[in-house]
Specification:
By secondary structure, the protein is α+β, with helices and mostly antiparallel strands. The protein has four domains: 197 residues, 3-Layer(aba) Sandwich (Kinesin), CATH 3.40.850; 112 residues, Four Helix Bundle (Hemerythrin (Met), subunit A), CATH 1.20.120.720; 139 residues, Up-down Bundle (Methane Monooxygenase Hydroxylase, Chain G, domain 1), CATH 1.20.58; 53 residues, no CATH class. The chain contains 25 helices and 20 strands. The strands form nine sheets. The chain has a three-stranded antiparallel beta sheet, sandwiched between helices. Helix 13 runs parallel beside helix 21, helix 15 runs antiparallel to helix 16 and helix 15 crosses helix 20. It is globular. One of its GO terms (molecular function) is ATP binding. It comes from Ditylum brightwellii. Belongs to the TRAFAC class myosin-kinesin ATPase superfamily. Myosin family.
Length: 656
């Protein structure tokens, strides 16, 4: 589990760990020296091997490593604090299988290195090894809002800049008029002073992304379909809405210009259908249906919501395709040899998971996404506390040993209860989303009234009606809830969904068909209110986060803490105040203090006796219980009585 504040280096750390875990097996003696040398140079080499299993294994390694450029292109963006910031959470599962016993010579002592020679003089391992046979990916809370807006000094997702920096011939193949398009051609992108990310230009990154997509079989017409879907997202941002002077009251007019023509060409949907779907809504009330006209602002919001949803579905399609190509079920098999059920393949493999989740964030303006991100970090911090502090304290209490461990400074269970409890922030905002007149100011008012006695909900006199604060484990954050209800609902109207299902782009039409079916099923449900609340972003994120934490709890977790040395992205410069604040809030200081108060070794009494009785010069009665024997043995071995302590079942002690 890799954690840290935004810009601390989590993504790069995960890449280093992933590369190590994916390629370390190529150093196994079953690989020839020549093959290992080639593998270290590039993962895109054409692998030629007489050993089909080695061949398949190296292809898996290549695909695992090639997933990084794709995720960075579609999920990362430049922020004020980080040029390559992950704007989503990612769980990568690397699946390993153990070498068959008949292929090894267990227990052989013919060579100190654990190697023996075969008839041809090649060295063979005498110990079973784990082999990487596949991987799977899961993403969390993609920051869709970045598709349609970003701060002046930031950028939207990298893939848009890469596409615009692609060769003109490639862009013209997508759409003739797209060949000369630049950053300034699209409102969602806009001008930017950053053309180099991680030491590479956007053009170089585009070539890397296309090469990585090819590794997963996305090339040719399938690649064009993917890129055209991205073009649709960009073009939606250029649509213009004006007040309609031909109708009484409020109404929007979608300007019929070249930009609208491009959208209709890309989507394959008529102009009138698009106009009606974006500028009007079909409303049903008291058994009657009527068309409600939207204002220009509402129409713009509707168009932006469509662009965000299309991009989200594009990313979902990519993840699904990557999972299908790297799943353990495909190891050493052709596509037509993969069985219908792949659950058994996962069950028969061991798994090492890498979690790269967005770091704790606090900005001048903190919106709905920041609340979700910080909520996730609270859960990870709570897991860290349980694994490293509370478990040790519980063990010592079970043994009847007094230990001075204060977990109160790191315990964040009250914050979690504030957010996800029975009447927590999630429940309150979900209620506002299904209430006909629900709004963000009402959400903030209810939250402050219900939790007025909470030490972690901050209410200040200078707060505006839509502002509230939360005292997180890392810092106190003030949130602007202006659009919390809209962001949490995040559902396109049915008539707009129906329109988009007619799109000629196969990626968009198939995904929106699925969305439409889900919405129609929910609409027909007898428990519509509960169903609507379960479809909110908060509810879905809480459910997925609970599954993630359950997965983490079932594993042996290694924690990697990334510390950001300064706020200016300067090398070899450490701001000690910022660094110490991160160390303290992450629980590192508490962990160091705990290490002073606990014993590094803890063994059952029978093992202590078997291991150390040979050091005793005293004739200890072996008829005594192990605990009684050890009670005589330890004072003899440790002259200082503070170097050991006798528990109910174990004897913790420091190194002698």
């Amino acid at each position: 589990m890799v954690s840290g504040v935004s810009g601390a280096g989590k993504t790069e750390t995960v890449k280093i760990i992933m590369k190590h875990l994916a390629t370390v097996q190529t150093s196994h003696p079953s690989f020839s020296h020549e093959k290992r040398e080639m593998t270290n140079k590039s993962m895109e080499i054409e692998i030629v091997s007489k050993n089909n299993e080695d061949n398949a294994r190296l292809k898996v390694v290549s695909k695992v490593l090639q997933s990084n450029p794709i995720f960075e292109a579609f999920g990362n963006a430049k922020t004020e604090r980080n040029d390559n910031s992950s704007r989503f959470g990612r769980l990568t599962k690397l699946h390993f299988t153990i070498e068959k016993k008949e292929n090894t010579t267990l227990g052989a002592n013919k060579n100190e290195l654990g190697l023996i020679g075969d008839n041809d003089g090649n060295k063979i391992s005498t110990v079973p090894v784990c082999s990487l046979v596949g991987s799977s990916f899961e993403i969390f809370l993609l920051e869709k809002a970045r598709v349609v807006s970003h701060s002046k000094n930031e950028r939207t997702f990298h893939i848009f800049y890469q596409l615009l920096a692609a060769p003109s011939a490639f862009k013209e193949n997508l759409f003739q008029a797209f060949g000369s398009a630049t950053h300034d051609s699209f409102r969602y992108v806009g001008s930017t002073g950053s053309r180099i990310i991680e030491g590479m230009t956007d053009t170089e990154h585009f070539e890397l992304t296309v090469s990585a997509l090819k590794t997963f079989g996305i090339e040719g017409e399938e690649l064009n379909t993917l890129m055209k879907a991205l073009c649709i997202v960009l073009q939606l941002g250029n649509l213009t809405f004006e007040p309609d002077p031909s109708v009484d009251g409020e109404g929007a007019l979608l300007v019929a210009d070249d930009e609208l023509e491009k959208v209709t060409t890309f989507m394959g949907i008529g102009q009138e259908e698009i106009k009606n779907a974006i500028t009007t809504r079909l409303v049903k009330a008291r058994g009657e249906e009527f068309v409600a006209r939207l204002t220009p602002t509402q129409s713009r919001d509707s168009c932006d919501a469509l662009a965000k949803e299309i991009y989200s579905q594009i990313v979902s399609v990519l993840v699904d395709k990557m999972n299908k190509r790297t799943h353990p079920a495909h190891f050493g098999r052709k596509a037509d040899q993969v069985g219908a059920s792949i659950a058994a393949d996962e069950k028969d493999t061991g798994c090492i998971s890498l979690l790269d989740l967005f770091g704790f964030e606090t900005f001048d303006k903190n919106s709905f996404e920041q609340l979700c991100i910080n909520y996730a970090n609270e859960h990870l911090q709570n897991r860290y506390i349980l694994d490293n502090f509370q478990s040790v304290k519980d063990d010592y209490e079970f043994e009847g040993i007094e230990i001075d461990i204060d977990c109160s400074t790191t315990n964040n269970s009250e914050v979690l209860n504030l957010v996800e409890g029975r009447m927590g922030l999630i429940s309150i905002i979900n209620e506002e989303c299904v209430r006909p007149s629900g709004n963000s100011s009402s959400f903030v008012y209810k939250a402050k009234m219900i939790h007025k006695d909470s030490d972690h909900l901050v209410s200040e006199k200078l707060h505006r009606p839509w502002e509230f604060g939360v005292k997180h484990f890392a810092d106190t954050v003030t949130y602007d809830a202006t659009d919390f209800v809209e962001r949490n609902t995040d559902q396109l109207p049915l008539d707009l969904l129906e329109c988009v299902t007619k799109c000629t782009n196969s990626i968009i039409s198939m995904q929106f068909d699925t969305l439409l079916t889900e919405r129609q099923t929910l609409k027909q449900s007898t428990r519509r209110k509960q169903g609507a609340m379960s479809m909110t972003i908060c509810s879905k994120f809480r459910k997925r986060l609970a599954g993630l934490i359950e997965h983490v709890a079932a594993t042996k977790t290694r924690y990697v803490r990334c510390i950001k040395p300064n706020e200016n992205k300067m090398p070899r410069v450490t701001d000690h105040i910022i660094t110490m604040r991160q160390l303290d809030s992450a629980g590192i200081v508490t962990a160091i203090n705990m290490s002073k108060n606990i014993f590094p070794n803890q063994l059952p009494y029978d093992i202590v006796w078997d291991r150390f009785q040979c050091l005793s010069k005293t004739d200890i009665d072996t008829q005594l219980e192990f605990k009684e024997r050890v009670a005589i043995l330890l004072p003899e071995l440790f002259k200082d009585s503070e170097r050991f302590v006798k528990g109910q079942y174990t004897a913790p002690y420091v190194c002698g």
